[in-house]
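Example 3.2
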Amino acid sequence: MGRTPEMAEPAERPLIGARLRAARLARRQTVAEVAAASGMTKGFLSRLERDRANASVAALIRLCHALDLAVGSLFEPPPAGEVVRRGEYPPISFGGSGLREFLLTPRGEHRLQAIVTELEPDGGSGAEPHTLPGDVEFVYVLDGLLRLDFPGGDHGESTTLGPGDALTFTPGIPHLFQSVAQSGTTRVLWVISPALPDGARLHGQSGR
């Protein structure tokens, strides 16, 4: 005799572990950091990420707040990737003059940060060198001419990059940049790892 709908087994609980882990890794946070921020133990959060524990509604709300997630997104499968469409780049501003900046990576992505900068002739970060709290920075010139100056040391160092040129350096070294193209827009791609923490570019730390 077949089962009637009333006799069917209860639906399995949604599996949220993969979504939680993906969100935590994107923010470059440890299990201990997220557990502390959400009022959980490391062991319990670890079991949640492996779908071996259930959390109360209140605990899930605290966890989503710690991970900057919408509660409803926990019950969606983790995406393979997050698309930022051309023409929809969020504008950002970290100072400087004669430039426009746009974020290419999702705001919740903390492992790295990609920014495209459009500079007018002579536009740049300003006369004051700045440093950034990342481990490594990569710059690739799409169009125009960009000069980077590293004024530290005995003599300082300067390099000019044209279309297709790339430079990798340590962002903790004081530096500044400027478009040296005679006309047109200089377009530059910057990639910083890890992503800059919120508020990292304050007065005296003008950015890309």
